[in-house]
Amino acid sequence: MIRYDLVCDNAHEFEGWFGSADDFDRQKERSLVNCPTCGSPRVTKRLMAPSVSTARKKEERRHAVMNAHNQEMIGKLRELVTAIKANAEDVGDRFPEEARKVHYGEAEQRGLIGKATAEEARALIEEGVEIAPLPVLPDDKN
């Protein structure tokens, strides 16, 4: 995971955690990175000093940040995500189209997972189609 210091065009400072530098860029392109204070999608990375990470430092940080309770919660979330994926049809980029078909009774009622842009997700929600993103958990992209 990479932690970035971020700032919006209204000078609100905050941090974000991403699986990779490319992950930040992809999320920003899809308007998924927004200021938690004002909601602005115009967010940029701030200059940061490089952090040299060793295996020992990484393990020390992991133990400092993740107490037993957090580890248990993440484990339960991971189980839930695994169960959802095991019991849903992955329709990939066709998710918005397939979700609408199920919602309007044009296709069999079933669980779906797939991909949608932020704009597509907003449109689905506005139409009353019930959707929710699956969480990306620590270590999923490491």
TrEMBL record:
Top-level division of the source organism's lineage: Bacteria
Pfam families in alphabetical order: DUF1178 (PF06676)
Protein name: DUF1178 family protein
InterPro entries: DUF1178
